[in-house]
Design brief:
- This protein has about 500 residues and is of the alpha/beta class.
- The protein folds into three domains: about 210 residues, 3-Layer(aba) Sandwich (Rossmann fold), CATH 3.40.50.2300; about 190 residues, Rossmann fold (3-Layer(aba) Sandwich), CATH 3.40.50; about 40 residues.
- Helix content is about 40%, strand content about 20%.
- The protein has 17 helices and 17 strands.
- The strands form four sheets. An eight-stranded mixed β-sheet has the order 7-6-8-9-12-15-16-17, sandwiched between helices.
- The longest helix is centred in the C-terminal third of the chain and has 37 residues.
- The chain is elongated, with a radius of gyration of 31 Å.
- The relative contact order is 0.13.
- Keywords: Lyase, Membrane, Nucleotide-binding, Transmembrane, Transmembrane helix.
Length: about 500
Amino acid sequence: MISSSSLPQLQIKIGLLGANASQYRPAYGFGQSVPAISIALQRARNEHLIDFVNFTFTWLICDCDQVLAVGYSNKLILDQDVDVIIGPPCVTSALDAALPPGFYGLPIFLWGATIATIFNDNNIYPTVTNLNSNTLCLAQAIEAVLLQFQWYEVSLVYIPDDIRRVGYFFPQDFQNVVNANPNLTIVYNQQMAATTASMHNALTQIKNRSRIVIANIDNIATRRNFLLAITDTGISQSNEYVFIFAQLRSLGMLQQITSNSNTSKFDDFWKVTNGVDDGRDGDALKAARRTIIVDLENQSNSQIDIFNAKVVAEFGKPPFNCVNECMGGPNDQIPASYARSLHDTTYAYLRALNKTTEKFGYLTKDLARNGTLINNMSKGEFQGETGLITFDDNGNRQPNFFLTMLDISDQANVVMNITTLIKRYTNETGLWANRGGKRPLYKPICGYTGTECPQNITTYILIGVGLVLLLLVATLGGIGYAVREKLKEKERLTR
């Protein structure tokens, strides 16, 4: 590790592409997120990764507008002469904003909801380092779960939104994975609306078609409504159903909720999200017992709360000075849910600078601006705020998925790691304790309608034995009758 104070100070200009419209602030608002950069910088300085580098910042707000994103990306490179771009956090705008850095050879580091599989294509995005895993990796993780438990027929339901947009990318990737596997079949595929009627209709269709349901619902309030729909349709009463929620949040069975005091905390995913008790947490819990969540490695709620407290402490401070209108209204004064992601992508960039210095023994502007080199220098692993982060040679994050479900005490329990499949349970009886200790079948013994029960083989055995005995009795009776008649005939002839 290079930490010599004798190295000349290098000036690095970081360009940020952000989002700050009111609808984006809870997820990745500018003021609610950028303190994470300051926290990452302080960590890197504490570890003496960047003792020889001074940083300045400039930023443009593209608000997930694709035209603005590509235009502002060019503007940061050509007019403001930045050395690296961080952002944007929206997947659709990042798809366009990441192209100019590839053309000019500058590094770009992505965070937030940049979950599109195409970012892994090094021919299109040669200088992208993406903190996120993608929806194809998520689909492959779901495939591994289905094969592990021999669940071969599944339904797929999803409700996308315009913030995270996982629901726009995951269904197609999952269908492609299933189509390539001859053992798996999607028997029902439906995009639902975020309405109770649409959810009930889909669940009614599922009752007669499958018992294993893959669900992707981006919005946490909508997801809870779906849990309530599962209970309201009577499905949660049955041990037969399994709902597998596929997500890329690094939260597992936690969710960020807002309390009445305008602070955020992390709580169980079946609980009401707005701090106003509607009396239905118990109903949502009944459905949660029928669910499995597959998500990237997550931290504990206490770890997340500690990080968020650091973010709040940096609100409004230099170098970003985001106050007043920049921070939005009184309900916007909480850390963005993706702030941890921004911390980790910033730290990954600072770490890549240090590794470049280690490789060459020095760091120059040309080296720092070499997007392909910096991308390659991102390789390796470190412990981040979103879990253990591992990058490959091309700056793609290698996923570490956790499979989480509730135990008999309704506590979230990680039962499996999916990189290569690693079981974290010793027996299936305990694993399925909420279902009578038995693994659910992908098709019930009596079929989806309950009318296909196989006849009890004992009945057939008893009938068969009865027929054999009847035949034996008849045979013996016939033989006895013949012998008797023969004796009578002999007696008659000897008189």
